[in-house]
Amino acid sequence: MIDAMPVLPSPAPGLRIEGLSRRLGERTLLADLNLAVAPGECLALLGPSGCGKTTTLRLLAGLDAASAGRILLDGRDITQQSAGERRVAMVFQSYALYPHLSVADNLALGLRIRGMAPKEREGRIAAVLELLQLGELRLRRPAQLSGGQRQRVALARALLRQPRLVLLDEPMSNLDAQLREELRPELRRLLCGGDQPVVYVTHDQQEAMGMADRIAVLRDGALQQVGSARELYERPANRFVAAFLGRPAINLLPAQGQRQLGLRPEHLQPVLHGGIAARLQRREWWGNQQLLWLETAQGDLRMLVAADQSLPEQLQLGWRPEHELWFDSHSGERLAAP
Amino acid sequence: MRGLLLLWSLAPLAWQLYTSLVTPEALVSGSAGATGSFWTLENYRQVWLADPPIWRYLLNSAVVGAASTALTLALAVPCAYGLQRQGGRLRWAVSLALLATAIFPTVLLFLALLQLARTLGLANNLLALSLPYAALCLPLAVLLLRAAFAELPPDLEDAARLEGLNLPQRLRHVLLPLLAPSLASTAILVFLFSWNEYPIALTWISRPELLTLPPAIARLAGSSLFTVPYGAFAAATVLGSLPLLLLVLIFQRSIVSGLTQGAIKG
Predict the structure, then answer these.
(1) Is A110 in Cβ contact with B164 (below 8 Å)?
(2) How is domain B52-228+237-265 classified at the architecture level of CATH?
């Protein structure tokens, strides 16, 4: 007897990752990852090499198989689908353009294999070439393109398929610093704010902070914290996140029993009395700021001050109590202020 | 130094060419003999007008060579791909086994192979001759192509997988075009082996019109039992080398062209 039709929940749009793990023999590459990315949102996976961020990306793409957990895209479980079945596009660190094909043929290959009619195919390719201003390069081979142009072609190939999820694996690490900075807003304009979620892998915290709406910090295959750049910077979940985000890195003072104090270099300031005694050792002048290396009874500290501020050799250091970040000296977890 | 190396490698060829173009008297004495001529095309006329003529043997060898090459590549490409995708220890063991087979002296096999040909009724069949040839070339071909697969950036195949290309499509559209130089050089090695192979061809083929070049040349006879037809031998080998020369010239560009250049970051 059926009393009423069951009400199907409307499929939640975007990406949901539930308990995703990958193990290889004895090694755990990714442990129990839980994340959700909304359509149009750009999430950066940030961490040192070997932290599991590329592993996560390959699992999402379907290039590697998950040991446990589920991946839901627009409410559908895609964990068991092959890479080709998922509507997921990926931009590789190496761009992975087919070297023997012209730009236009690089873009056409996937569509041709899918059996798309030539007319529709040409239309789509022309549109995406237009969007990325690649029209003039359509007959060139990858070897005849600059790094930035190759990256745009790789991006074009990803967007061409109208994917439901876009993955980017260190897409800018092969470009020089200036080009990277120029491309960041362009990448955001092209990718983010659409109707598909974007997952962006990087080990460059500045890039993560500049590109992403939220950042997930990974370490040794385990998620440390996820939140906006500001949340992560001002309220890090633990010592690792505090140290990984922020350049110059946070000062970690020697542990006092169970507790350890962390102070950001820009939060230190000279005071007239009552601070800790410090001796100026070295100065790096950066134009807009200067970094001072100070020797104190608490070890060497870094202090960031305005470029034009002049300081004596011997000074007293202070800070505001609300800038103190306290950590458990063993586990590294952040603690409430004492 | 370069001149010395050129001399070292080209002198035998030059001598061969010279031998094929002079009369037997000239070859022995170094001067025109009683007939009064030094240079002659008689050696070429002899092998060309023989029964069966030499172009028949060239054709036979070309057929066997093409069949062996096609068969070897058709088997070696999937083997090499599979081997490259295998995990470390199995790949190591199989590679070692292949290497052991590749360096095994093939001459030791020809009696057993002859037995096989008799039992299976494969004697006097040109295409059947490509079976042992492919089998003998396969280990080296797999090893060479596996190394070539290993040099392709793995991202390329991953990108193709994401675009929905299945394995045959990935091979056809992405991997094999990039392997063209390695495929060409492997093909030439196989063809060369087949072209030069003697003991198996000698034992498997007995009908004169089916002989391949090496046993056919060995059968060239002099005017009497006691003369060795140096000139005819030389003419036949010169004619036999020409197709190979042509083949290498054609494929040379594809062998040396660095197709994978620029595949990844510049």
Answers:
(1) yes
(2) Orthogonal Bundle (1.10)
